[in-house]
Amino acid sequence: MAMPTSYCSISNPQLSKTSYHNKQVPSWVLRTISNGNYTGGCYTITKRNLRSRFHICAVTGDQGTSNVSGAEFPSDYMELLVQAKEAVESAFKDGKKLLEIEFPTAGLQSVPGDGEGGIEMTGSMLLIRQFCDRFVPAEKATRTRIFFPEANEVAFARQSAFEGCSLKLDYLTKPSLFEDFGFTTKVKMADRVRPEDEMFLVAYPYFNVNEMLVVEELYKEAVVGTDRKLIIFNGELDRIRSGYYPPFFYPKLAQLSKTFLPKLETVYYIHNFKGLKGGTLFRFAFQMFSLYRARSPILALLIHVHAFA
């Protein structure tokens, strides 16, 4: 099994501050750090509650990095992004239009919930930006629209990871007066899309159950019958597939497992399982899912399995 990868480190540096929605938020700082044989970027950002500050260290590497051959488990996030880029390119060449990319953001051997929710979402945001830097050509940046879960997240992205970029940033839902109770204002997707849009990337639509319903609407109204492509990035769709949401209380969400999710092509996937018989389920491009199951601290058994059959 691949060795654990250190991704996040938390500290409280002294930073200059800029105004952001009437709150004080640290400015975005990029410094180069050394990480073994790779190059990393150290990003200074803010937590979701906009109170404390921390560092997230994520490798950036070279945009010209050659493609990775084979389907070996990535050794770090730089290799992961290169593999994800290659997997998406292969899927597009094969005519696929609806893709899923899923992997943990608190470390390559972490599971959802290992990190605080806001930190995990911010990790996804950083990695999405790095993925786009590698995958989206400069001339297509203005024709690529990234949908974040809600409008406040777009404002956060513009002040941090996506500051100064040409990518179009948009949102799936808008906050409402009852946001604390899980209610948001639905956004009509037909009103958000522009004729020049060629590709949509949906960022971590899992915080509110309504977000994936809006993603399905986006697919039906703006992708079906066109040449556009849609990528769902870290949507934690296994929650829906596994019945985590009881169908009795979430009938529309349960219906997605029959109508929308089967259309998805999972082109890049890492899912870790903890416990005495834990392991890692990994898929790269169109190859079979591989299950790395630990049998002892120094021995692992590789099993090929078909998932989501």
UniProtKB/TrEMBL annotation:
InterPro entries: DUF1995 (IPR018962), LPA3 (IPR044687). Transmembrane segments: none annotated. Residues 74-293 form the DUF1995 domain. Signal peptide: none annotated. Pfam families: DUF1995 (PF09353). PANTHER family: PROTEIN LOW PSII ACCUMULATION 3, CHLOROPLASTIC (PTHR34051:SF1). This is DUF1995 domain-containing protein.
